[in-house]
Amino acid sequence: MSVVPKCDETGCTENAIRVNSRCRFCKLNFCWSHSENETSHPCLTASHPETNRDGFEFEKDPEVSEILRYLDVHAIKQEVESIFPGHVCNYVGKPQIWQELPRLCGNYNYHIVLGFADGQRWAMRIRLKQRKYLPPEALIASLNSEIATARALEDAGCAVPRTWERPTDSQLSEQLTYFYQEFIPQGDCAIYTLWTEPFNQQTKIFIRNYAKFMIGLEKAHFNQMGSLTLTENGSVTVGPFIEKRTTIDTPPYFLGPFNTAKEAYLAIIDVRLQQTLNRSRYKPSRELLHYLVLLEVRWLVSTCAELDNGPWYIRHNEEDTNCIRVTNGGAITGIIDWKWATLTSKGGAFAAPFCFPDDKYSEGLNALGVRELALIEAYRNLGRPELADLVRTGRKYHRLFDVLFRECVTLTTLNALRRAFLGLPDGRQGLPQTLKEWIQVAKQNFSTDEHLEEMLERSEEFVKNSNQSAMYSEHWGLK
Fold it and tell me: Reduced to 3 states, what is the DSSP secondary structure of residue 121?
């Protein structure tokens, strides 16, 4: 299975670029040469680009039909009863038609509900293959990482669901990539969406309980940096750093483990730089900007002493709190969905969750929001002022995640990233006021980079030959 889709241009055999390859109008994927070629891709110039081609919308039908075909109810019952001896599985919620599955389908997993005679419930968590262009080895790596992370947290006494991997003697199809996980006890449990809730006494109680959870998480720490994984005998160890998309195109598809967080981030940055040079990562109009951004991030990371110091702790890495189950009184009954958890420095692990900053964060301000201040207060009240300090200084990790992993590259995020790493105040004067100015400053800062001249020449050539040069030059600061 290809790590990235092939270019949809007729006759082209190249892979599509890794970032934003799929047109939101025609739904087709394009390589570096065709993504911004007006002849190949008429959406670029049409007034109503959605009418240009009969685009292909991703459909779950083929894969879901395959899953339904391979779901052997009898084999599932036998398997879970062997894992959970003394308990009778009396229900497997296999949909009869694939259209019933959307309610059980997330962005990355399908869930089949299992019931036991004593009232307990599990989920069979089946990893989605089709949409994310992950080869089987990478899918299995991400699955094993989720299992290992949940197991490490359970061993540390944290409120997470118990998890069981596929038995080695499983009779189910090898086409199914899955594991089993118990449901968090329901009671008055609710999914807590922090950013839609008013900040009130219940929110403060929840944040205090979140601080208690994190104090428990502190017990799980490791001497290498990466993501957790399973050994052949099922024990937890540190493996490669798992990303949502493969880091590299060949096995083992991910990098690591590493000795330090700095070593990990620099290795990922260097791969992204090389992919940019190879014309395999970004569109032609954006690659100079992204190349300079990667050089900027590399410099900031390389000068951050905090990233040299272990041990390394677990970071959930989801961008919301839908994964946190909370009672109406604010008590946390469990935290689920650890599929993208990685290890990081203690400062990174104990920085506030990504959804804690307030609306001013999206405006580029690094000042702490009311929920972050409440988390600081909670740690202090629990006798952990050093963890409160990690929240206070944790903004650099939010900004690093935005730019390096989410690849959210705007003037706002770039200036905020620099201020966060260098400890500069929000009102700092002298930072670039336009993206064009940012690029000019970056070109001066990294003028000694051995490949910058090549990237500048490619940028100039693209602008000269593109019918959309005026638009690209203004928006991406190419001139």
Answer: strand
In a domain, 54, yes or no: no
Question: Is there a single domain that holds both residue 67 and residue 176?
Answer: yes
Provide the pLDDT for residue 304: 98
In a domain, residue 23? The reply is: yes
Rounded distance between C-alpha atoms, residue 284 and residue 32, angstroms: 6
Same structural domain, 11 and 104:
no
Q: Taking Cα atoms as reference points, which of 399, 411, 407 lies closest to residue 476?
A: 411
Q: pLDDT per residue over 70-101, tens digit each?
A: 999 999 999 999 999 999 999 999 887 655 66
Q: Render 125-143 in DSSP notation, one character per residue.
A: EEEP-TTTT--HHHHHHHH
pLDDT in tens, 107-128: 788 889 999 999 999 999 999 8
Give the DSSP H/E element, type plus range, for residue 147: helix 136-155
DSSP state of 403: I
- DSSP string covering 329-371, please? TS-EEEE---TT-EEE-HHHHHSPPTT-S-GGGGGT--S--HH
Same domain, 69 and 160: yes
The alpha carbon dihedral of 362, 421, 298, 252 has a sign of: negative
Q: For position 68, what pLDDT does the model report?
A: 82
Do residues 179 and 93 both lie within one domain?
A: yes
pLDDT of residue 42: 78
Q: 40: domain range?
A: 1-46
451 domain residue, yes or no: no
Low-confidence ranges of the chain (pLDDT < 50): 48-60, 187, 474-475
